[in-house]
Amino acid sequence: MKHVFQKGKDSTKPTLLILHGTGGNELDLLPLAGRIDKEASVLSVRGNVSENGMPRFFKRLAEGVFDEEDLIFRTKELHEFLDKAAKTYEFDRTNIIAIGYSNGANIAASLLFHYQNSLKGAILHHPMVPRRGIELPDLSGKPVFIAAGINDPMCPPEEAEELQSLLEQANANVEIYWDNKGHQLTAGEVEVASKWYSNVL
Q1: For residues 156 and 134, is the Cβ–Cβ distance under 8 A?
Q2: Is 118 a catalytic site residue?
Q3: What mean pLDDT do residues 43-69 have?
Q4: What single-letter DSSP state applies at residue 120?
Q5: 3-class SS at 42?
Q6: Are the CB atoms for 92 and 119 separated by under 8 Å?
Q7: 79 catalytic residue (yes or no)
């Protein structure tokens, strides 16, 4: 997978896995990592799917309707890529925090849904429920931050609430932050996510 790796000053800090939204790339959200933790290593990845020339992490059948088969395949692909990247760049595979926006948040949530130990935790900006009707792994103690917009036309508030509920049922420690904006990534939610990260990790 196309990616950028930046080695951090403190190897004991989590490696921040940065996952862009639809049409983004591995460079777009690099400043976000610095807002969360200036000393951490950063692995920013580009999605392998193209939708009308726009990079994505998995296919969709329509707006808000995921191609479940491709989602499962691409989640496995990303999970295995993290295994390889940890060896290549010599970072702790058990200490990865995902920071995803929109489509990137959805693939990060999918990692949590499918693999118990793929992520140590996650910051999910404007996510949706990746899959329904499956049993989640035991996510005991796993910290997850969800930022959602009460006026988000693409990820309605019910999606964020259901995702929170499903993760909590799997024993994750979930905090949700509501912004009164739409689908955009706001400075306010990034600031709250940064404070959450500092407190939890």
Answers
A1: no
A2: no
A3: 95
A4: S
A5: strand
A6: no
A7: no
Phi/psi-derived region of residue 171, left when phi > 0, alpha when psi is between -120 and 50, beta in every other case: left
Instruction: State the DSSP code for 186.
Output: P
Model pTM?
A: 0.97
3 is catalytic: no
145 bridge partner residues? 123, 175
Structure confidence by residue, pLDDT tens digits, 103-155: 999 999 999 999 999 999 999 999 999 999 999 999 999 999 999 999 999 99
Catalytic residue among 41, 102, 110, 118: 102
If one counts every other C-beta atom within 10 angstroms of the C-beta of residue 187, the result is 8
Check residue 26 and report its DSSP letter: T
Choice among 11, 70, 92, 183 that is catalytic: 183
- In 3D space, the residue among 39, 68, 63 whose CA is nearest the CA of residue 51 turns out to be 63
